[in-house]
Structure formats: structure tokens, C-alpha cells
Design goal:
The structure holds 2 protein chains of 2 kinds.
Chain A (H helix, E strand, L loop, with lengths): L1 E5 L3 H13 L3 E5 L2 H9 L6 E5 L7 H10 L7 E6 L4 H10 L3 E4 L4 H34 L16 E2 L5 E2 L1 H8 L10 H18 L1 H4 L4
Parallel strand pairs in A: 1-2, 1-3, 3-4, 4-5
Antiparallel strand pairs in A: 6-7
Helix pairs in contact in A: 2-3
Chain B lengths: L12 H7 L4 H27 L3 H16 L4 H16 L5 H27 L1
Helix pairs in contact in B: 2-3, 2-5, 3-4, 4-5
Classes of the chains: A alpha/beta, B mainly alpha.
Chain lengths: 212, 122
């Protein structure tokens, strides 16, 4: 996983880079807050960022605030690294949008554990985002039959959204996951089919009537 | 000398080595970076003090504190922490004396760092 380090202190930056690389992370650098802000807006921005609080230009707090205000952004875990350790500072950092906070000089084990929390968060958010996409795709495929349908009182054809009168089977097939199995109900058999059959039989009677 | 008996040590070599996981090449690198970095930051402290800029002093001292923190430089960190507090509180009465103490601590730190590097070459 890729991590962005935004730190203007050369010693801190080098130690972070060496430590993170040893743990298997890919490291990207920003020399100040403005460079960090630009990097984090990029579509391929790293999912994790370690931000120094006091930097020239934009400080870590401002970077957190700007990043959190971005709409439709990929999951991003922000960790503030700073020599500020007072409780009020920690609260301010977290309220500005940082996900976690590590004081200088960083303890390697603590930093590693906190980064692993970040990796879990990113992976969870990504998996949720993938699942939402799957559900949205599935929903778009679902046919839905709902609402007020204009139907002819005589022939029972239905008027669709394009003002085309469709046979009811055609309309329902378009908007619902159904198939039709055609049959004849007893009432229609008596009313329509039986008279037709009787008429046909009487026309063909000399050939089909059995000998008396 | 154990840092527990005397908190104001010039440098905590043991912690520093642990921090680089025994990597002497990395240690040499960060010592080199520090020796390049700290004079600039010290100049910022002096300049803020010269123009009686309390908030500038707080920022400059904070930056130097961050760099020093990795070396366990107790005496220097103590002085720079006091300067940062003076800057935040706007009380620069003792700032000159504290800055002098900081510079003294730094002049002891740099040979200690050089000695550590030399030891690593042995």
C-alpha cells in the first residue's frame, strides 16, 4: 500500500521513509502542506497519509480540513505526526479530520500498529464501496412494475410511457420478470371457443358426423 | 551516563540506535541531515528573538524541537521547549539566556554525534 509523507523536517522525513519502506509500504513525498494537498486530490492519491502539523504554507490541520471537504473522494486515512502533544492539540487535530495522531519522536511499534488500523479501515471502506456498486448495478437490472397504469376498459391494452397501446402481455413482460403461459379460462371457453368449435363442426358435419 | 539518572543528557545513543534498528548507514545519514538542518532552524530562532517576535519564536523553537526529539538530546530539548513556551506566552524576559543555553547544548551535541558515527565505523 502507498503512503504519502508530508514533512518538511529532513530527519523526520528520512526516518519515516526508511521505517515505512522496511515495513513494505511504498512511500510518496510532499515537501510541504500545499504539495500534500495537491497530491491528495489526484485520482491515484495514496490511501494513507502521514502529515506533519507544522509545515510551511498549509499546515497539517488545513490539509485535513480541505481533504475532508472534498466530495466523492476515495477512502483516505490521515495520521497527524507532530511534536504538539497537549490534549487540546490532539482534540483539534482529530476534529480537523485526522483519523489518528502520533507524537514526535514516533515510537516505531506504535506507528506500525496505528498504520495497520488505517490499512484495515481503508480495506473495509473499499470493500463496502465495491458492494454498494454491485448492488446498484443489480438494482438497475431489476424490472419494476409499479404506479398508475392507463388500461383500455374494452380490450385491456395498456398505454406505455411513449403513448403506445400495448397488449397487456407485452407491457408486463417489459416491466416485470415474468413469462406468460397462455390458456383459456372456462368463461371464455363457453363464450368464445365453444361456439366457434360448434360452428366449424356444423360446417364440416357431413365428413365428421359418425354414421347413425 | 544513564538518561534516567540525568535527564539533561546531550544525546540518547541507545534510543537512537534502536530507532534506526541498528542500521549504521541510516544513522550516519540522519546525523548528516541533522547537521545540515539544525543551523538553519537555530538561525530562525535567533532571528525571531532579535526582532522580539514571540509567535515567530514559538514556531521556530517548535520546529527545532521536532528535529532534536529524534536524538534524545535532553539538554537541547529542554532549552528549546522553554523557548517555545516563552514564545507562546509572549514572555521573552529570559529568552536570551535560554537561547544561549540552547546553543551551548548544541555545541556539546554535535561532537557526541560525530563520536557515535566514528564508533559505528569501528
Amino acid at each position: 500500500m502507498k503512503i504519502l509523507i508530508a514533512e518538511d523536517d529532513l530527519v523526520s522525513k528520512r526516518l519515516l521513509e526508511a521505517t515505512l519502506t522496511k515495513w513494505g509500504y511504498q512511500v510518496a513525498h510532499a515537501c510541504d502542506g500545499l504539495a500534500a494537498w495537491e497530491a491528495l486530490q489526484h485520482p491515484d492519491a495514496p490511501s494513507l497519509a502521514i502529515l506533519d502539523w507544522m509545515m510551511p504554507g498549509l499546515d497539517g490541520i488545513e490539509v485535513c480540513q480541505r481533504v475532508r471537504a472534498l466530495p466523492d473522494r476515495q477512502p483516505l486515512y490521515l495520521l497527524l505526526l507532530t511534536a504538539k502533544g497537549a490534549r487540546a492539540d490532539i482534540v483539534a487535530g482529530l476534529q480537523a479530520g485526522a483519523d489518528d495522531y502520533v507524537t514526535k519522536p514516533f515510537d516505531p511499534e506504535e506507528l506500525q500498529a496505528r498504520l495497520q488500523v488505517g490499512v484495515r479501515m481503508i480495506q473495509l471502506q473499499q470493500s463496502l464501496s465495491d458492494r454498494v456498486q454491485e448492488l446498484e448495478d443489480a438494482l438497475s437490472q431489476v424490472k419494476q412494475l409499479r404506479g398508475l397504469l392507463p388500461i383500455c376498459a374494452y380490450c385491456k391494452r395498456i398505454r406505455d410511457d411513449q403513448s403506445y397501446w400495448q397488449e397487456v402481455e407485452g407491457y408486463i413482460s417489459t416491466y416485470a420478470e415474468v413469462q406468460f403461459s397462455h390458456g383459456i379460462c372456462p368463461g371464455c371457453y363457453e363464450k368464445f371457443v365453444k361456439p366457434d368449435l360448434d360452428r366449424l363442426r356444423s360446417q364440416l358435419a357431413p365428413e365428421f358426423d359418425p354414421p347413425r | 551516563m544513564s538518561s534516567e539518572r540525568n535527564p539533561l543528557v546531550d544525546m540518547d545513543a541507545e534510543s537512537l540506535l534502536a530507532r534506526v534498528d541498528g542500521d549504521w548507514a541510516l544513522l550516519k545519514e540522519i546525523v548528516g541531515l541533522f547537521l545540515v538542518e539544525y543551523p538553519r532552524r537555530l538561525d530562525e530562532v535567533r532571528a525571531a528573538l532579535a526582532r522580539r517576535d514571540a509567535s515567530g519564536l514559538a514556531v521556530a523553537a517548535h520546529g527545532l524541537k521536532g528535529t532534536l526529539s529524534y536524538f534524545g538530546a535532553g539538554a537541547a530539548i529542554d532549552a528549546v521547549r522553554r523557548l517555545e513556551r516563552m514564545g507562546r506566552e509572549g514572555d521573552l524576559g529570559d529568552a536570551e539566556a535560554t537561547c544561549a543555553a540552547l546553543e551551548q547544548a548544541l555545541t556539546r551535541l554535535t561532537p557526541a554525534l560525530d563520536a557515535l558515527i566514528l564508533k559505528g565505523r569501528a
